[in-house]
TrEMBL record:
It comes from Chryseolinea serpens. The keyword Transmembrane helix applies. This is Uncharacterized protein. Keywords: Membrane, Transmembrane, Transmembrane helix. The keyword Transmembrane applies. The chain crosses the membrane at residues 20-41.
């Protein structure tokens, strides 16, 4: 039982890492888009 939980946690941890990377890229794209629109306005 404990071994199974450990394996599940290991797989889930990898998914969390991928999600964090994807969210980081998405946030950077949104920030760049906002900066570009602000520069175009001025």
């Amino acid at each position: 039982m404990f071994k199974k939980m450990k394996n599940l946690f290991r797989q889930y941890r990898d998914y969390i890492r991928v999600d964090l990377i994807l969210y980081g890229v998405l946030l950077m794209m949104i920030l760049v888009y906002l900066i570009l629109t602000v520069l175009q306005v001025f």
